[in-house]
Design a protein that fits this description.
The chain has about 350 residues and is mainly alpha-helical. The protein folds into two domains: about 150 residues, no CATH class; about 170 residues, no CATH class. The longest helix is centred in the N-terminal third of the chain and has 41 residues. The protein is elongated, with a radius of gyration of 25 Å. It starts with a helix and ends with a helix.
């Protein structure tokens, strides 16, 4: 064998071995780093404004950005998760002991027209609600069960976010230099990755959170119990095309109507249609703009599948992976198919 080929083969083998070892070392820290990178893409416009305010000082502006993220995002999320755990356990206890409580009559009324046609149709609603509430209790408990692990992940996230905000332009430049593709392709790849992440996080994730928040406010205002829990369920339901938050709001309106609360029922129906239902139409152009978008149903599957596969952190990793998938599909069309088309044209 040629000496140069032998040297190259040895180098590639050594490089692959070191890459595998490095991957094994960094794998336990994948989640906080991936979430930090994803969030840095979403909050970059705000970070740019902060950096201009501080005269372009990267370290100081990155520190302020990370501090604002912790105050405005992660502290409220922590409080929400704690409250969600309390309400989930309350619902689980209620269903286990007393069935579905005041919703029994609502469920019977909703099933009556169907059972008149299909008498054998009798879904185990109590079992389904008990299973969902128990799953929420278990998953939310898992988040706080390992305090040391949680603190370590939080620390790694903060450190990663700080350095991604501070030195992100250097990391991007290094990736472009290491890539075997032309620099023009590398820049388009990075741009599409950023657009995919923005589409998923801004276009679907943030809008679903806003709609869930509005549903929770409506439930609180019109007397629906466990409003934080149902607002969270509405956030997930909002990702279902066409149906969305109606899957949560409509049964609540029926419940209020059947329990004699006609005024609150009308008020909640108006709130659901006029306020909650129009949020995506108003916010989507502002948050994402025109261009690349990921269909909400894929975001829904990515959230559910991410939680099932990765655990609670899959809530973030699932959408990130689906964003990268769609970005890579766009890159495939850009590089592979375009090159094949050019070759066919030249022939």
């Amino acid at each position: 064998m040629d000496t140069k080929k032998l040297q190259m083969s040895f180098f590639i083998g050594l490089l692959l071995a070191i890459l595998l070892l490095a991957g094994a070392i960094f794998l336990p820290f994948l989640a906080p780093v991936a979430i930090a990178v994803m969030l840095s893409v979403v909050i970059r416009p705000a970070h740019v404004r902060i950096m201009k305010f501080f005269g372009g000082r990267h370290a100081l502006s990155s520190f302020v950005t990370v501090f604002l993220v912790l105050v405005t995002i992660f502290i409220p999320i922590t409080l929400l998760v704690q409250r969600l755990g309390v309400e989930s356990y309350s619902l689980y206890s209620q269903v286990s002991e007393d069935g579905v409580g005041g919703f029994d009559e609502t469920i019977r009324s909703a099933l009556a027209p169907i059972q008149s046609i299909f008498p054998s149709f009798n879904p185990d609603v109590k079992g389904a609600v008990e299973y969902v509430s128990a799953s929420l209790v278990q998953n939310l408990g898992a988040i706080f069960s390992g305090t040391a692990s949680l603190l370590l992940s939080m620390f790694l996230f903060v450190v990663s976010l700080f350095y991604v905000m501070k030195d992100g332009h250097r990391f991007k430049k290094a990736l472009v230099e290491l890539s075997p593709l032309a620099d023009a392709y590398d820049k388009q790849i990075i741009e599409r990755l950023e657009r995919a992440v923005n589409s998923v996080i801004r276009g679907s994730f943030i809008i679903s959170i806003v709609q869930g928040l509005l549903v929770g406010i409506g439930f609180f205002a019109f007397g629906i119990p466990n409003f934080v829990l149902w607002g969270t369920v509405a956030s997930v339901a909002s990702l279902i095309p066409s149906l969305g938050t109606g899957l949560v709001v409509a049964p609540a309106v029926i419940y209020l109507f059947l329990t004699g609360s006609l005024g609150p029922a009308i008020g909640l129906a108006v709130w659901g249609v006029a306020i909650v239902g129009l949020v995506d139409n108003m916010l989507l152009p502002l948050l994402v703009g025109k261009g690349f978008t990921v269909h909400p149903v894929f975001v829904l599957f990515s959230i559910i599948g991410g939680v099932l596969f990765f655990g609670p952190v899959g809530l973030f990793l699932g959408p990130l992976i689906i964003a990268l998938l769609f970005a890579l599909l766009e890159i495939y069309k850009l590089i592979i198919l375009d090159d094949q088309g050019k070759k066919m044209t030249s022939i």
